[in-house]
Amino acid sequence: MGVQGIGASARRKEDKRFITGQGKYTDDMVLPRMGFAAFVRSPHAHAKILGIDASAALDMPGVDSVLTGDQMIADEIGNLICGWMINSKDGSPMNMGAWRALEPETARYVGQAVAVVIADTQAQAKDAADAVVVDYEELPSVINAVAALQDGAPQLHPEASRNLIFDWEIGEKDATDAAFASAANVIKLDLTNNRLVPNPMEPRAALAEYNSAEEHFTLYTTSQNPHVARLVLSAFYNVAPEHKLRVIAPDVGGGFGSKIYIYPEEMVALWASKRTGRPVKWLCDRTEAFLTDAHGRDHHSHAELAVDADNRITGFRVSTIANIGAYMSLFSSCVPTYLYATLLSGQYDIPNIYCDVKAVYTNTTPVDAYRGAGRPEATYLVERMMETAAGELGISPADFRRKNFVRTFPHQTPVIMCYDAGDYDATLDAALKGIDYDGFPARKAEAARRGKLRGIGLSCYIEACGIAPSQAVGSLGAGVGLWESAEVRVNPIGTIEVLTGSHSHGQGHETTFAQLISERFGLDMDNVSIVHGDTDKVQFGMGTYGSRSGAVGMSAIVKALDKVEAKAKKIAAHLMEASDEDIQIEGGELKVVGTDKKLSFTEVALAAYTAHNLPEGMEPGLKEGAFYDPTNFTFPAGTYACEVEIDPDTGKTEIVRFVAADDFGKIINPMIVEGQVHGGLTQGIGQALLENAIYDDNGQLLTASFMDYCMPRADDLPDYELTTHETLCPGNPLGMKGCGEAGAIGSPPAVINAICNAVGDNSISMPATAEKVWQACRAQTQMAAE
Amino acid sequence: MYDTTYHRAGSLQDAEAKFAAAEDAKFLAGGQTLLPTMKQRLAAPSDVIDLGKVPDLSGISEGDGSLVIGAVTTHYEVASSDVVKRLIPGLAALAAGIGDPAVRYRGTIGGSISNNDPAADYPAALVALGATINTNKRSLSAEDFFEGMFMTALEEDEIVTNVSFPVAEKSAYAKYPNPASRYAMAGVFVAKTSAGSRVAVTGAGSDGVFRVSEMESALDANWSPEAVAGISVPADDLLSDIHGSADYRANLVTVMAKRAVAAT
């Protein structure tokens, strides 16, 4: 592939194996004597389990065993945990109900596992799971988080009175109230952020093996963070101590957050492999994925904005009810709190912000981080509010935003975040220019002549990536540190392996990370391998989520590279009888500046390993590791401009233009970044127009297949027009900010703002289905007629 | 999927014999509904009898004032047939819009109408064109054939052999797809044949395909989009679900009828 450094759109090294079907996913792993697991799941949203009769199932062909929660408790396997402690306003810790991997007493959502069958084949396991008879006593259920807080609502957990997990707050309430008391204008808005199902292309899977002689487990699984999985399985679930548990996340087909968490099924597979004395494989089917993968979003919010006579924002007040589902998933508590309310300042200088958040149990699938995690919810609220306020104040939405932009850095918001760098005017200007904002009235008039409603909408988003530093997140309740580690291993012939704690499940790390090394040493990309996803190979790592792999993961690699470079230079200087400072690395060679003396990188590497002639006291070898803990979050930001055309006869929205102007700081591989933005925008547009997890009143998920849950497809989408503007992040050595989630965070309000603008109705909610828009168009026509 | 026994029928007689010999058999044409249903463990036939290779069940031919399409002719073959495009262009256009390319290469006209999914496209065409459905036992008019949601006049062991359409003077189909499944939320086929103007609707009715006689009379008097623009079907008889209320579907029927007429 040649030498390809920072800024090169190198073709993805990993794609050849994916495209030719040579990727190795968990389902590709086959072990001798392995049995298959099939789960018996609750058909009820809320029911007491009176008894489980497995006798018929045990008599069926190929059935090894049927295991239940009681046996898990007897084996002292721990409950599932939530890894971030949140305290309520009154200082009390969150009210967490017990979540058992196999529930023995009360099922609390449709699809919850209550037993597992292990059999010789998957079909036999499924047949037998159908034959397990569970005696349920149905209980009343509650689906909507607002309803769950009402008096008399069905109660899920004895620990959480009125289904309230916590009532948390951030910001200064009195100061914010005072800002409202003296405001020239107050704008109010109620919004729902619709519940989403993540739907990565590869459903979850697990293959667990137990070696009784060694008392050692191996778990192949679809994880975004195998080391965290091992830590949690060891420290909290009591499956095995860390040195007796190897977790391998091989090729993984997408995650979007849903593969961060430890779920019941993977844990049960591990435990069952010991219990049955044979490897156990579990493959999630698509229906199970809809029912059991952690869902995203599901907020109900009321927001108020205080504005002075000069149209400057003086206060922002938000009250949010967050649906957590039936149990608290691993990071469910930090999503609607520290990943959400800390972004309520948006790109704006808002002196007073106050937000309270009530997290609520309901009889639905647990909700956790999904691409953006809290930040899309914040951005949707802020950017719908900006457009709403501009409309009510009678000024241009662009001007209103400009009036309130943060322009000096660092900027301390009233909600923890300290923005380090940015140029919000630049990305707004780029988006306005890209979409020809000034030409919009003419395009609207032209569309009207064709009977179409044209609208334009903006979204100026900011997000916080690379959650850090560890000490700070620890003080906010996180159960883990959020640093990253790397090891750079130079082989004797000068090829390089980089071991990283980041995990690639579609992001292209094998290419982007290799570009760092290629640039640093002038080596061919083919001489660099990226190793990840195996706790036996990689020292430790926190995995990939929150757009952290570049800003945090690559920073750790840079630190390790610095050490390797320093040692290589010392060796080269020694061999060429020069001083370290005079050694320069260029084109794969170490040269003595101002002379024609040089050694190839291979010669230096070989010298490090032959150790025949090293500087006095130097250890042989050329391998260095580093841990990197950032000093702050990073703050990607940008402006999205969306233009829609609506057919008032059917209500169908067509996105005719979508311009994205992003500031991701330093970009390593522009092609891969573009791909990330395309994917993010598509997920955001999916949320805005099409996707919605709908439960009926009895807690049955009505949208449990692609026949009913509408994923965005190519013909739903425009050609994206992308530009980037670079302000470097001062907090990490490369100046990177992250790009993985921006599209999903910034796009929903741009789309809804455009639709509201087209129809002339600010109440249109997500997803803006054709029927919803048609109803709004009809109401507008009727109002005009009256 | 539950275990099943697969048979390939060599002839109609062979298919009938295999069906009779099996405990709980199903005929398989393109398999675009049956196989996914089996994969989801929602159907468990003991035997599957594949009609795909039965001679005389496939192919498109022009008769005297008619178009005959064999039962296992794929949607792709109908969509790309010059004969269909010339004789009944609306039918070719309809077939070109069924599912996605993979479905169109496998799915068949006989399989689709035998399944009679209330949101399938073909029933609207067959009813609007006044097609005749020929089976191994008899001939049926389209209106007698389709009996309601997933219900047809077919007996258990009856096999559709071909569908015969009268050549149409005018024909067009317009559908508004369900955004998730891409099945019709409302699909309207308009046709003008020697029998007069006909309008048939799929996807919207709570009991499958239906005709809109008021639109038909209006088109007999004046074949133009304006003629149907003011006519709406009562919402009471329409489907209402998470994808669209009956009111919305009623609106779509009028809009799609207008667009179908405009396309002729």
Largest interface: A-B, 24 and 17 residues
Structural class of chain A: alpha+beta
**What's the end-to-end separation of chain A, in Å?**
68 Å
Total domains of chain B = 2
The main sheet of chain A comes to: 7 strands, mixed
Beta-strand content bin of chain B: 25-35%
Secondary structure tally, helices of chain A? 20
Number of helices of chain B: 12
Strand order across the largest sheet of chain A: 3-5-1-12-9-10-11
Which CATH architecture of the largest domain in chain B? Answer: 2-Layer Sandwich
Number of strands of chain B: 14
Low-confidence sequence ranges of chain A: none
What would you call the quaternary organization?
heterodimer
CATH class of the largest domain in chain B: Alpha Beta
Biggest β-sheet: strands ordered side by side in the sheet of chain B: 4-5-10-6-7
CATH topology of the largest domain in chain A: Aldehyde Oxidoreductase, domain 4
Keywords:
heterodimer, A: 786 residues, alpha+beta, Aldehyde Oxidoreductase, domain 3, Aldehyde Oxidoreductase, domain 4, 3 domains, 7-stranded mixed β-sheet, 5-stranded mixed β-sheet, 23% strand, B: 264 residues, Uridine Diphospho-n-acetylenolpyruvylglucosamine Reductase, domain 2, Uridine Diphospho-n-acetylenolpyruvylglucosamine Reductase, domain 3, 5-stranded antiparallel β-sheet, 4-stranded antiparallel β-sheet, 12 helices, 14 strands
